[in-house]
Automatic annotation (TrEMBL):
Residues 7-75 form the HTH gntR-type domain. GO terms for molecular function: DNA binding; DNA-binding transcription factor activity. The keyword Transcription applies. The keyword Cytoplasm does not apply. This is GntR family transcriptional regulator. PROSITE patterns: HTH_GNTR. It comes from the Bacteria. Gene3D superfamilies: Winged helix-like DNA-binding domain superfamily/Winged helix DNA-binding domain. It comes from Actinacidiphila rubida. Keywords: DNA-binding, Transcription, Transcription regulation.
Length: 77
């Protein structure tokens, strides 16, 4: 996925993660890639990747385990 540099980056990254969860690329209970990996994949900052992941929490798509990272919610699968 190419980021549209004219638009805010974090919603685009969040949309791609959301799409991957919906398509089954990331399955329920699976640990998501960390912010360093996501930042490298999408060529964005770590804070952008973190904001994208955090934005999916209120939707119930992901949850965080302190010290371990973000995981796909069972409800999302």
């Amino acid at each position: 996925m190419d980021i549209d540099r004219a638009e805010p980056h974090w919603p685009q990254v969040a949309a791609e993660i959301r799409r991957r969860i919906g398509s089954g690329t990331y399955r329920a209970g699976e640990r998501l890639p960390g912010t360093v990996a996501l930042a490298a994949e999408f060529d964005v900052s770590q804070s952008t990747a973190s904001r994208a992941l955090a934005s999916l929490r209120p939707e119930g798509l992901v949850y965080v385990v302190s010290g371990r990272g973000y995981f796909v919610s069972e409800a999302a699968g």
